[in-house]
Amino acid sequence: MVANFPKPTPSAPALLTHDDATTLLHELGHVFHGICSVTKWALFHGTRTKRDFVEAPSQMLENWSWEPSVLQKFAVHHQTGEPIPEALVKRLVAAKNEAGDKVDVKELYNKLYEDIAQFKISSHDTWGIATIGHMIGGYDAGYYGYMWFQVFSADMYASRFVKDGVFNPQTGLDYHYEILHPGGSRNSMDSLIKFMGRKPNSSAFLEASGLNNSHN
To answer: How many other β-carbons are positioned within 10 Å of the β-carbon of residue 207?
Structure first.
């Protein structure tokens, strides 16, 4: 896996922010999808699923970066070896969706760009984020699909891993064989039903997003 993470310095090892750790787990989700998939035809191997499912396994793995019992196992101080304080974990989780529906993303991007790059954006009507390669290189409006992927990932996580325990080996094996193993050789909805025992719904996604979960 190739990633753009901070490099070590003469006085400190490479240190990851919580956002970096979440990104690492996300990309590992894709790696595991490729490693654990076994299909007859390469055309359907691993992440070669329907576009509206391909990010679900990677986003599902992101949940471990918000799980207190998991964070305390690997998020340790690089000098003292002390695990991340429980109070800090609670603050991280509490802030996850803070003001998520109240932020003007364009305004925030332009401000950060000017502060970091020290380059004045001539017009705040400019969507600088559109210069990101993924936005114009094939994903385009497909980025809205990331919210749909989260419906699947949140439902898988809540219905099995939260219910059975995030370290439950049988749940992990079920996830391996019913979600990762088939790749795109089986309809994604069939894989979800096999793993969860029912069709997916949006309840877990709405709850995890801090939104009203009274409607599916």
So the answer is: 13
Kindly report the pTM of this predicted structure: 0.80
Residue whose token pair is 């993924």 = 134
Between CA 207 and CA 162 the distance in angstroms is 13
- At 183, the pLDDT band (50, 70, 90 cuts) reads very high
Candidate from 113-122, 125-134, 168-177 with smallest mean pLDDT: 125-134
Question: Is 27 an annotated catalytic residue?
Answer: yes
Which H or E run contains 91?
A: helix 86-94
Instruction: Kindly compute the dihedral angle of the four CA atoms of residues 193, 197, 200, 204, in this order, to the nearest 10 degrees.
Output: -140
CB 191 within 8 A of CB 56: no
Burial of 105 (0-12, 13-18, 19+ CB in 10 A): exposed
Q: Which of 27, 98, 114, 207 is catalytic?
A: 27
Number of Cβ within a 10 Å radius of residue 136: 10
Strand partners, 12: 9
Question: Phi/psi of residue 197, each to 5°?
Answer: 80, 10
> What are the structure tokens assigned to 78, written together?
């690089």
The three-point CA angle 89-91-97 to 5° equals 110
Distance of CA 209 to the CA centre of its chain: 13
The dihedral through the CA atoms of 155, 23, 64, 167 has a sign that is positive
The torsion defined by the Cα of 166, 154, 145 and 46, in degrees rounded to 10, comes to 30
CA pair distance 51, 144, nearest whole angstrom: 11
Q: Is the separation of the CB atoms in 63 and 201 below 8 Å?
A: no
